[in-house]
Amino acid sequence: MTAPAITPAELVAPRPFVLRADRRVIVGVSILGLLVVVALLAPWIAPHDPESIDSARLLVGPTLRHPFGTDALGRDVLSRLLYAFRISLLVSAGSIAIAAAVGIPIGLLSGYAGGGVDLVLMRTVELILVLPALLLAISLIAVFGTGTSITVIAIAVIFFPILARVMRSSAQVVSTLPFVDASRARGMGGTRIAVRHVLPNSIGPVVVQAAVLMGFSMQIEAALSFLGLGTQPPTPSLGGMLYEGRDTLVRAPWAEIFPGVAIAITVIAFNLVGDGLRRHIARGGDG
Hints:
Order of helices and strands: HHHHHHHHHH
CATH topology: MetI-like fold
Structural class: mainly alpha
Largest sheet: none
Helix content: 55-70%
Number of strands: 0
Strand content: under 5%
């Protein structure tokens, strides 16, 4: 019995995910690019030492010397904000990178292999998904200790199951397409098909989800630092600045407002990127 004939159209895979211009993506990336540049240049553009205490200038309002005012210890809020951005962006990017490095292979294997492999992998992933995100992070930190590195790992553990499930769903759809069957009929190995064909054509939804999760990871990092479980003083962090400014909110609202606005702007930028990418995929990758 001969194998069924394969038409040329079946041998052509869909176009892999390619980013095209989208107004939301452009705005979001522009904001994030500016924030990244500011964070990288913090040692050169910060007007003061972020950890320097000045007892003569406690809770001073915005001035030319201190554009964002000072906090309860006389530290310059703008300088601390610039350095805090470095920590928050590092935690956000690092945690999602680790989550993607773990979740994407799991999801790809689960979606492409199916059967018992899919059952075992997804049931294991779902055991993590049923736990509340912040509670899971706090539990991990309680076991392994506090600090920026532990925060990155804790947030990665929270989010890798989400990326794994998104990758799995996308890979399942792509694995049923004619060009994958055509590759099998030509004798191409399963690993090669998964890596060369299924992965590049399944990655789009994962990129969208990762962009959105970057914003959530920043919020979780801020929440952990606010609770004293994330980045430890005197290293500035956005959540830590919110915690320190809560007692002086009436007398010195700037110590609380500026870190909160910084978090909001960054999260909105990540969401703009995610929404723009989602619309791009919904249009079939065109324009």
